[in-house]
Fold this protein.
Amino acid sequence: MPVRRLAEDPASRLAIWARRIAGFSLPVVLLAIIIARAGLLEIVPILATFGAALAMAVMAIVLALISLIGIWRHGIEGLGAALTAIAVSVALLAYPGYLGVLGYRLPQINDITTDPIDPPRFETVGRLRSRQANPIAYAGLYAAEQQKAAYPDIVPLDLDVSPQAAYDATMAVITKRRWQVINARAPQGGREGYIEAVARTLIMGFRDDVAIRIRAIPRRLGARVDVRSASRYGRGDFGTNARRIRALLADIDDVSSAPEKPEGPARPAPKPKQPPPKGNQAKGR
């Protein structure tokens, strides 16, 4: 006698598609990050790829929420798929959402400096920026007023060391951070020290430009360090440049104020071996 199999409860197609779309959005985000870090394409296609992944995450959440209504009313399967789609999509949208909140609260500026009146100039960066990038000229009083209101703590760093020592400390910090140095001049005579480097953002690896100027403080032994950090793309920087300057100046201050390690006592030179007396040699024969 043939055995009849009980038909399984139908699963929600919306929940299944929501999980598929949410899962597909993850490799799309990874693809955008890989393209950005490798520098394979310009900023527009990278942002388009990343935006498509975020749009798919939003779509997955909408489909999952609609499927939950049918699952609740008709008692069909698909709850796990819907919850998985929501969890993956929310995790993907969390950081961009945080950046969106920052972008709403912070001013729309992308060029931060410790000296808005006389900011360090970009000398080599102009050759590295494409036509789609931001201009290298400082925005002037408009940006300075907004910066002062949002980041009043961004000020020059005064050190009680010579300009050469400040330059060496700055180069040590930049080397530790693995920034790409594209231009550097040590302070010699009356000439100020200058360093131009390229930093990269944490996740997407977007390239930002940093200029550091080191001047001697008149009438006393000391050096003043001014920093300028500017994003290559975008109207706002979500506070990235201000955070970079704060961390950089704090590290330079720590390195320059750290006491030098005292050299260990010199080991005494070993005494040269003297030949045994002739008398002993004769006895030993």
Observations:
- Residues 13-105 form one domain.
- The chain has a mean pLDDT of 88.
- Helices lie at 13-38, 43-74, 79-105, 125-128, 141-150, 163-177, 240-257, 278-284.
